[in-house]
Amino acid sequence: MQETATTNAKKSSQTVPSTLMFSSHIRVTFMVAFINIVTIGLLGFGGYQIDLLYNTKPMMTLLGVVIAFPLSQYAVFKWVKSKYLPHVKSKK
Hints:
Layout: H1 2-14, H2 25-54, H3 59-84
């Protein structure tokens, strides 16, 4: 009985795709940083330009950064899900 449990545990650990273990940590880290920097940078810069246009410093810049943070996290989530979890389907 105990051998069967051990054998099943070994089989289940061998079926996990190696991509789930993030074999390329540095590439993943840089991609996540890139997504965050680009999203926050674009919306922050857009807010800054609106601030200059309407003389509302720093309100629109801060609003752009605050809106950009959850958007960038969502973009990272979607990227990781599509890259490393293609077999997981979202519920609609």
